[in-house]
Amino acid sequence: MAEMSWAAGTQCVAKGDHRKPKSGELAYHKGDILTIVDTSTKGCYVVKHNSTGEEGLINSANVREREALRVDPNLSLMPWFHGKISGPDAVCKLQPAEDGLFLVRESIRHPGDYVLCVSVSGKVVHYRVIYKDNKLTIDNTQYFYNLIDMIEFFSKNKGSIATTLLKPKQKQGTKSAEVELSKTGWLLDISNLTLGENIGEGEFGAVYEGEYMGQRVAVKTIKCDVTAQAFLQETTVMTKLQHKNLVRLLGVILHKGLHIVTELMTKGNLVNFLRTRGRSVVNSVQLLRFALDVCEGMGYLESKKLVHRDLAARNVLVADDSVAKVSDFGLTKLDLKEPDNVKLPIKWTAPEALKKEKFSTKSDVWSYGVLLWEIFSYGRQPYPKMSLKEVKERVEGGYRMEAPEDCPPGVYSLMRICWKQEPRRRPTFHKLREKLEQETGDLSLDTGSECREGIWSGSGC
Ligand code: ADP
Fold it and tell me: Does residue 246 share a domain with residue 143?
């Protein structure tokens, strides 16, 4: 039976309600997300309630696994958006008439402008959405960040339109992200979230520290609806991945855009971590441990045939117990070797990916070599003092970075094999891991987190 193979840490979903628990049992509602803590009791699990943090017993037959989302280009945060269609077309689509049935279209007469079309008392009313000072408005009194924000508002308030929006007319072929996320247990409730300080600035939105029902979390907020839609793919990929060296997705919140909720990595990104602490605090054993952590996370992606495309120390985060985890799957794609026009991080990208957009696990291995260089140089910028143009040309001509100061020769030779011009001559992450373990010598791989902290304080292991 499937339940037999469940391990501690597995996320699962309650199949029904259990409102009156006996002593030692957990109270839960249908659809609550629970984490398995212990499976040693026959027929039962000890589980932790993800929202309340309470622990207790549950009958193993009463839970099911939280499903991963399918990578589906039709999954939409705006299933009610029909693109460029005419007014009469919109009227046709809103038949049979039903009060509150609505859609949004792009105006044909005024390209770039949107129109909200709502069915009310057997007629369709068209509201022009005006773009003003980077915001959207219908009536010059209520302003919105984006269409998602606007639809959310008029679904709750009538405001100055004829009726509240009751039912989206979904564009044919689209699937509502909200419905799918909620069905699979990945949609979190904003009312349970307390936002704290801003802890980082991503390219597309700010990152905040927060608390989700007692659990410390990081929240990436994306306000632009087009970007949010693109990030939905990142999220979808993350629902499939569970590994100790990948930043774990807890779920998403849909409110005025997209909020991606992940575990909080209290020690921030690896570049800042190494730069701010330096050689006096972090020794080479710990550097190797970071290298091994990332290698294991990437080995897992490799086994899933996923390509990261943006592996760099800035995209590796450090947990409270100093375990490094790979983050930022924004560019992660299934290994289909398809060309794609994205802005490339030149200093980290393999030559064949730069020239021919050939991304593969082997181009990730190249980036991993650069990341190793960053780790052992304590967060220095790769190819110091070289312009991007120069890097591109010289690397193509066979130039490779020198070893960072005091870098163990064995580690530098790993960098060099990651930087083989021909992708197939580069090692797999699996092989790299073996070599790193050799490098780590007799350091036990099972060393616990206390040991990691011990290294900082110089107490050794
Ligand atoms: P970008 O969009 O530039 O790739 P991110 O949005 O992923 O970057 O993150 C920006 C910064 O926010 C990171 O460098 C890190 O310092 C911080 N950050 C992101 N996610 C987390 C997290 N889960 N825990 C702690 N800090 C985080």
Answer: no
